[in-house]
Amino acid sequence: xxxxxxxxxxxxxxxxxxxxxxxxxxxxxxxxxxxxxxxxxxxxxxxxxxxxxxxxxxxxxxxxxx
Length: 66
Ligand SMILES: [Zn+2]
What we know:
It is built from 3 helices and no strands. The chain is mostly helical. It has one domain (about 10-65). Zinc ion binds next to helix 1.
């Protein structure tokens, strides 16, 4: 796991990515259980969420301009 975080945007995004994926997974399972969408239809959302975090990590400044 990521123990190192210097506080810059990129490290923050990196630290948030894991929990965010778990939260997304939980929401998808909840939808599978209680909603109208099965996990079979919603799983690509995980790829989208992960892709967005990679894009944001690329855009935000890293390590205070280094
Ligand atoms: Zn950093």
